[in-house]
């Protein structure tokens, strides 16, 4: 059960009414950036809001308002740790503002730190005792702690303060349901619907309540009412699917599971349930494929491995089943049923001693947790272990296009390398490409003194689009006389290398960079590009080699790779060597350390990568990509505690994808 957030209608009325007086700054119009940040927040443009509010904070770090609003934006993106850090700043500057405590409590509630959340709600009530939303959210936290009567008292108070607070009625209904007062619960939800018949959540809640009462057809009716208000919410299709299941309408169940996965391809809970259904229908291969996806999405899913082992056992893949039982037991050493099944499996594999030991271990666990004479009875109800299943399925991807960038389904990959590129001022996308570039004084000076007459500009960037060969030919013709007059000018060869790289002719680009270095062995920019193009060539060769050696057709169930398989790594030694040379020439250019760190990460030399990201950040403190990639690398090392602040900083500095990663790995981190 998820806690209830403050209704956005209430929040943004507050935003509009709450005006601030900020002192002007000579370099930055702080009031303007604060106003832009608030407007973006109002319009659900959370990443843009963070960018503008960060500028306001840098200009006026002694003001609490920008920290508060940036905290709201981070909260809305699921970056709860980042939000708490900003709200802490807001409170340290102004300890009397109740909304800072309210939202800090909400963040802690999302992290399941319910007791800490209650303390913040108490502080918020002390400073704003007439705000009904504080009582609603405190009541929701108490629901999570099963303090149902105390929660109802908070909802009662909220209703006294605001008789039209629909969330108070919804939550009071949930509390009454938990107290087995189902009819009274239904009345409360009906009151909420009367207050706002366009509240899709109210219909969803009523549907779930009726589902719990086994009124499946009525539940489906409510889910479909909610769908009329939002037909892209995967949670609605999920609940309708399991309602159809209990009505024995399997075709409709499959159809709704498919719809959930169309809207949210990484919804592990739906994949898991569909796998169970496929197993019931004896579609074992289909079930196994779904379980494989479940354990890929969440490698710590106990039941994913356990059920996968059961299916493999049915299909005759006993050794594969044994590995999956091993994994389930590794994740949950007190899983008696897994020991029993593994015991039976070992018996079939003629491992009599191992089978006997597993049976004894199951007996020990039975004695530890239950005194029933029947071990199978101990696990008759699989719900006893559902608390141990950490499914990654928040059913929120429908919001991805409405500012909630953290719910987008994206492939998580390192931010790419920087290199020196050259743009023509008459390119259609010149302005957009220039905006993506980082400022390097040496490059700017060279552009001004040498390239302005040719309508060209060098820049340090990681995002340059490919150039049409016709355009490349035009630029070469423009430079033709200079190239003829100065054939030994290393910059001319750098030009040609960049042009070749922009038309994807990597081998020719590499030859040009080598020639530039031959003419000037201290030409750091040429080394930087040489290293990068060498890296790109190595990755292309690695990809071709992998495609040649990898048989993608799985002819037998035994062909599935196990989680312990090692990934092959590309040979990037030559590219790293060139980065080392570039570093000797430009030791204070943090981008070089960043690039080399990416190569170390790709080579699975993670500690070397982290050291280089550290150096890059020390030299370029606002290099968003370095924070993001260091965060991803730390996640690979399972150091989420260190990774999550890096990802939050990356999001703050403009890497929108950071919020998708935060949602998956950091939302509940301590």
Name of the CATH homologous superfamily of the largest domain = Tetratricopeptide repeat domain
User: Tell me about the biggest sheet?
Assistant: 2 strands, antiparallel
Question: Helical percent range?
Answer: 55-70%
Strand order of the largest sheet: 1-2
- Low confidence ranges: 1-26, 371-411, 550-566
CATH-level-2 architecture of the largest domain: Alpha Horseshoe
Structural class by secondary-structure content: mainly alpha
Computed CA radius of gyration, to the nearest angstrom? 30 Å
Strand fraction band? under 5%
Q: DSSP helix count?
A: 34
Index terms:
single chain, 670 residues, mainly alpha, Serine Threonine Protein Phosphatase 5, Tetratricopeptide repeat, 5 domains, disordered N terminus
Summarize the SSE layout with pairings:
Blueprint: H1 8-17, H2 30-42, H3 46-59, H4 64-76, H5 80-93, H6 98-110, H7 114-127, H8 132-144, H9 148-161, H10 166-178, H11 182-195, H12 200-212, H13 216-229, H14 234-246, H15 250-263, H16 268-280, H17 284-297, H18 302-315, H19 318-331, H20 336-348, H21 352-369, H22 375-378, E1 419-424, H23 430-435, H24 441-451, E2 456-461, H25 469-485, H26 490-502, H27 506-519, H28 524-549, H29 573-585, H30 590-602, H31 606-619, H32 624-636, H33 640-652, H34 658-665
Antiparallel strand pairs: 1-2
Polypeptide structure, described:
This protein is mostly helical and 670 residues long. The chain has five domains: 1-128, Serine Threonine Protein Phosphatase 5, Tetratricopeptide repeat (Alpha Horseshoe), CATH 1.25.40; 130-196, Alpha Horseshoe (Serine Threonine Protein Phosphatase 5, Tetratricopeptide repeat); 284-388, Tetratricopeptide repeat domain (Serine Threonine Protein Phosphatase 5, Tetratricopeptide repeat, Alpha Horseshoe), CATH 1.25.40; 419-540, Serine Threonine Protein Phosphatase 5, Tetratricopeptide repeat (Alpha Horseshoe), CATH 1.25.40; 572-665, Tetratricopeptide repeat domain (Serine Threonine Protein Phosphatase 5, Tetratricopeptide repeat, Alpha Horseshoe), CATH 1.25.40.10. It has helices at 8-17, 30-42, 46-59, 64-76, 80-93, 98-110, 114-127, 132-144, 148-161, 166-178, 182-195, 200-212, 216-229, 234-246, 250-263, 268-280, 284-297, 302-315, 318-331, 336-348, 352-369, 375-378, 430-435, 441-451, 469-485, 490-502, 506-519, 524-549, 573-585, 590-602, 606-619, 624-636, 640-652, 658-665; strands spanning 419-424, 456-461. The chain has a two-stranded antiparallel sheet. Helix 5 packs antiparallel against helix 6. The longest helix has 26 residues, at 524-549. Mean pLDDT is 83; it is low at 1-26, 371-411 and 550-566.
């Amino acid at each position: 059960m998820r806690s209830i957030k403050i209704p956005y209608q209430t929040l943004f009325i507050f935003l509009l009414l709450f005006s601030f007086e900020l002192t002007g700054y000579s370099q930055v119009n702080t009031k303007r950036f604060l106003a832009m940040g608030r407007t973006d927040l109002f319009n659900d443009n959370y990443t843009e809001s963070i960018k503008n509010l960060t500028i306001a904070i840098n200009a006026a770090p002694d003001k609490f308002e920008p920290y508060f609003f940036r905290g709201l934006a981070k909260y809305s993106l699921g970056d709860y740790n980042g939000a708490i850090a900003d709200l802490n700043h807001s409170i340290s500057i102004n300890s009397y503002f109740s909304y800072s405590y309210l939202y800090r409590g909400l963040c802690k509630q999302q992290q399941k730190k319910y007791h800490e959340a209650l303390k913040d709600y108490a502080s918020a009530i002390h400073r704003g005792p007439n705000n009904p939303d504080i009582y609603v959210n405190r009541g929701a936290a108490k629901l999570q702690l099963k303090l149902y009567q105390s929660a109802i008292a908070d909802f009662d108070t909220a209703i006294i303060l605001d008789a039209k607070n629909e969330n108070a009625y919804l939550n009071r209904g949930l509390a009454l349901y938990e107290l087995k007062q189902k009819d009274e619960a239904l009345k409360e939800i009906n009151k909420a619907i009367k207050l706002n018949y366009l509240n899709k959540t109210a219909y969803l809640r009523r549907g779930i309540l009726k589902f719990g009462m086994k009124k499946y057809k009525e539940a489906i009716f409510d889910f479909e009412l909610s769908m009329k208000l939002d037909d892209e919410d995967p949670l609605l299709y999920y609940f309708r699917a399991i309602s159809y299941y209990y009505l024995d309408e399997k075709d409709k169940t499959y159809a709704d599971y498919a719809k959930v996965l169309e809207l949210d391809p990484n919804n592990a809970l739906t994949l898991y349930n569909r796998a169970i259904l496929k197993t019931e229908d004896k579609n074992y291969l289909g079930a196994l494929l779904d379980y494989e996806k479940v354990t890929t999405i969440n490698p710590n899913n106990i039941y994913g491995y356990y059920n996968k082992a059961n299916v493999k056992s049915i299909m005759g893949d006993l050794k594969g089943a044994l590995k999956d039982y091993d994994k389930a037991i590794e994740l949950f050493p007190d899983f008696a049923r897994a020991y029993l099944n593994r015991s039976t499996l070992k018996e079939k594999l003629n491992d009599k001693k191992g089978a006997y030991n597993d049976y004894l271990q199951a007996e020990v666990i039975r004695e530890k947790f239950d005194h029933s004479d029947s071990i199978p009875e101990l696990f008759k109800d699989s719900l006893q272990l559902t608390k141990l299943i950490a499914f990654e399925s928040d059913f929120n991807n429908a919001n991805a296009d409405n500012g909630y960038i953290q719910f987008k389904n994206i492939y998580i990959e390192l931010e790419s390398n920087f290199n020196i590129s050259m743009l023509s001022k008459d390119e259609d996308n010149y302005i957009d490409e220039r905006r993506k570039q980082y400022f390097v004084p040496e490059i700017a000076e060279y552009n001004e003194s040498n390239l302005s007459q040719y309508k060209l500009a060098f820049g340090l960037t990681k995002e340059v689009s490919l150039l049409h060969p016709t355009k490349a030919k035009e630029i070469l013709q423009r430079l033709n006389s200079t190239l003829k007059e100065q054939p030994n000018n290393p910059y001319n060869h750098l030009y040609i290398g960049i042009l070749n790289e922009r038309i994807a002719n990597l081998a020719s680009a590499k030859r040009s960079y080598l020639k530039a270095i031959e003419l000037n062995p201290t030409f750091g920019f040429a080394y930087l590009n040489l290293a990068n193009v060498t890296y790109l060539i190595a990755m292309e060769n690695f990809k071709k080699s992998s495609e040649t050696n990898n048989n993608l057709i799985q002819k037998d169930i035994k062909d599935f790779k196990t989680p312990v398989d090692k990934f092959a790594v590309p040979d990037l030694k030559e590219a790293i060597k060139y980065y080392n040379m570039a570093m000797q020439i430009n030791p204070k250019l943090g981008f070089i350390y960043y690039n080399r760190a990416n190569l170390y990460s790709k080579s699975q030399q993670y500690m070397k990568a982290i050291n280089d990201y550290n150096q890059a950040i020390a030299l370029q403190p606002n290099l968003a990509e370095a924070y993001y990639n260091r965060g991803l690398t730390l996640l690979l090392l399972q150091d989420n505690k260190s990774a999550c602040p890096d990802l939050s900083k990356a999001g703050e500095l403009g890497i929108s994808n950071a919020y998708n990663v935060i949602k998956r790995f950091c939302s509940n981190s301590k």
